Amino acid sequence: MFTGIVEELGEIVAREQSADAARLTIRGKVVTSDAGHGDSIAVNGVCLTVVDVIDDAFTVDVMGETLRRSSIGGLEPGSRVNLERAAAVNSRLGGHIVQGHVDGTGTILARTPEDNWEVVRISLPDAIARYVVEKGSITVNGISLTVSGLGRADTPAADGHRDWFEVSLIPTTLSLTDLGASTPGTVVNLEVDVIAKYVERLQQRG
Q: To which H or E segment does residue 205 belong?
């Protein structure tokens, strides 16, 4: 389990591609300080298992399904990624409950600078739109954020999605995560609040 509070901005330093998987080597001084084989680290919101730690970098194996269903498939050496270690039982839950299981991907549609923050609009897949509510929580590339706006476009975006949501990013988020430099057209990983999915399931069973 994670909290969606990014600990550092890491970097992909190597990628080894096989038939239906990839091994990534990722540099992250903070998250490797106490990491070992078998530990979980969220990479852009995807829970991955540490294979090895070498100096300030760690390696992970990514299966084909994860490569296809998340933005991890598009990462190359030099890509910057948000990193977070699994939450400790005795730590404060600064964001919200994040599983590291991506529900879908969206595309950054627009960025609107304000005085002390920036509003980012992101497309929202039909399959998960019902779980997203204004002022609720959503995870974008592993970052716990509050939904500040929702809407539906008259025509689909380039990725085919009509629904969109907005998040307002404070200076800290802009400077310490990859969203600070992500431009319109960038694909991002989305994970909705797991509590919403449990509530829906309970209603269906009732």
A: helix 194-205
